[in-house]
Amino acid sequence: MNNTETLNSKGTILLVDDTLANLQVLTQMLKERGYMIRTALSGKLAFSFMETMLPDLILLDILMPEMNGYEVCEKLKADERTRDIPLIFISALSENFDKVKAFSIGGLDYITKPFQAEEVLARVETHLKLYHLQQQFFQQNEELQNTLDNLKATQAKLLESEKMASLGNLVAGITHEINTPLGISKIAASHLTSDTKKAATSYEKKQLKGSALKAYFESATHSSQLIFNNLERANKLAQSFKQVAVDRTNLDKRVFAVKKYIEESIINLTPHLKQTQHCITVSGDDKIEINSFPGTLSQIVTNLVINSITHAYQDGDTGELRFDIRDELGQLIIEYKDNGCGMSAEQMDKIFEPFFTTRRAKGGTGLGLHIIYNLVTQKLKGTIECNSTQGLGTTFTISISSQNVTTPP
């Protein structure tokens, strides 16, 4: 709707015809169906009207003085403000040449005078629905693009401030997640376009039967709803995912004993371990200390163990999970192993990617190992590697910069 006068109507329609009787009949017919009607006796008056208000649909006569319907249509399609407004020709000209010309310059439909009321109403309703659906599609598509643009801008800002959010991969993950609903929307829109063209062709050939028109309306309604539902889903996904933040800790930096702190972190996992037969051991030099973020290390330890429990073993399995800590020339090495099912080469290639999970059907988010990767590389300024063989378990090796490691005498 374009102003407060039309808020309660089904849409604003501009009727352009130099015959007053035609305008009166069409106005009465369409008003009874809840449309807001504006009339113009010439093309010039129509453009004057559209300077202050744009209609949702235009019904346009062809044979008019000064400026005929074809000229009006061409001028409308040349203007960015009006080119997308659906336009239906309604004329006494019935030759195929006239119809072909009408479609070729941008008309969406063609009704021959004398017209039937039900035919006019059906075509007006269909094209208004399609127009509103198109506007909705463009709006939601723009909102999705703005969301992705905002995520990219946030990525640059966080990287500059050395926070631990790698939103480059996050944007890729979001794009992957919303591809499905957008793909369905694209297919439905294509189907809707194809059906519309077929209906228009049948009409031109005077082969459009009532049953075919009814089938078309049912198909258009179904496709419209499909597009709307999937665009809503994509929009919600984007809105949800942009809230994901990898930087989840703001704890102080201090010197702490690595082995002892890992053991304390494992104690906090007792509620999870009670439900399994797994055994966790921690080995290494008790004297190795690091000047770093203990909360971050605790989160890494927790996520590694939970990842193994969730993905590496079947219910009832007895697993062996092990942390080995050592100092190699002043560099802290934390090696974590499980003897679970391991991973394939294909899974290994994607292990640290955001939203990659083999348990999505059971609620897995695919963010666990991605968060670990960012905590190690961004917060602790270290590196992490993963090695795995199917049936032989998985090993994660974390290396932390030598400048943070101390081994007291």
Describe the structure.
There is one protein chain. The protein contains twelve helices and 13 strands. With 409 residues, the protein is α/β, with parallel strands linked by helices. The chain folds into three domains: 4-115, Rossmann fold (3-Layer(aba) Sandwich), CATH 3.40.50; 119-241, no CATH class; 254-406, Heat Shock Protein 90 (2-Layer Sandwich). The strands form three sheets. A five-stranded parallel β-sheet has the order 2-1-3-4-5, with helices on both faces. Helix 3 (69-78) links the parallel strand 3 (57-60) and strand 4. Helix 6 (167-204) runs antiparallel to helix 7 (210-241). The radius of gyration is 33 Å and the shape is elongated.
Secondary structure layout:
Blueprint: E1 12-16, H1 20-32, E2 36-40, H2 43-50, E3 57-60, H3 69-78, E4 87-91, H4 96-104, E5 109-112, H5 117-160, H6 167-204, H7 210-241, E6 254-257, H8 258-267, H9 270-273, E7 279-284, E8 289-292, H10 294-311, E9 320-328, E10 331-338, H11 345-349, H12 368-379, E11 383-389, E12 393-400, E13 405-406
Parallel strand pairs: 1-2, 1-3, 3-4, 4-5, 7-9
Antiparallel strand pairs: 6-8, 8-13, 9-10, 10-12, 11-12
